[in-house]
Amino acid sequence: LQEVMWEMIQSPQQHYQRLTSLLRRIRDAPDASRELERWGLRLDTDIYKTQGHVLPGERINLRHRSFLPAEELGWHREVTKEAPIAAISINSWLLVYPKRLQHLAKDLLAALRSSCGSMGMQVGQPSVQELRDDRIESYVRSIQSSLGSQDKVQLLLCIIPGGRDDVYGAIKKLCCVQTPVPSQVINAQSLMGHPGKIRSVVQKVLLQINCKLGGQLWGVDIPL
User: pTM for the whole thing?
Assistant: First the structure.
């Protein structure tokens, strides 16, 4: 995924250089040139240039203020430090994790509580399910039991070991199909590291949770 993202976020100049390099390689490769000739095709060694139109920047609206994004067109810093348009308070939620990851669960909970205020959210104390192991059956049984014994669960938050796509798939199937409830699954590896990294992950998780529960992070003006 990181390699794909690296390909996608290159600058226009980098894209231009790579495409013109590819065109030159095709021209200089005898086999490629013969194949193009066989089809009656010819590739220019430069990309067609045309007049472009640069759209003005859009103003991003939060609950209490508006701003224009910086040149890199990101506004993560703003939406994690100020109240969004609509924030959902999390009062009834379930936290599930295996016993060997209890230290990460403790750090995650502390980071959630310390980060939510600046983002206009309130996060209450969860119902905690600490599993003896990280088998799929343990997660599914515990989640089913907890959801069945509680009246209204707004959110299920699970911490799973790194590289366990099977556990992720089982949890999502349970929460999306069998017992519908908004869910957030966090890979334990993303929580390992310095406190600043955990805080950054938690901020992104809170933004996702707010949207999943029906909140609205930001908006733009769309005039008639």
Answer: 0.75
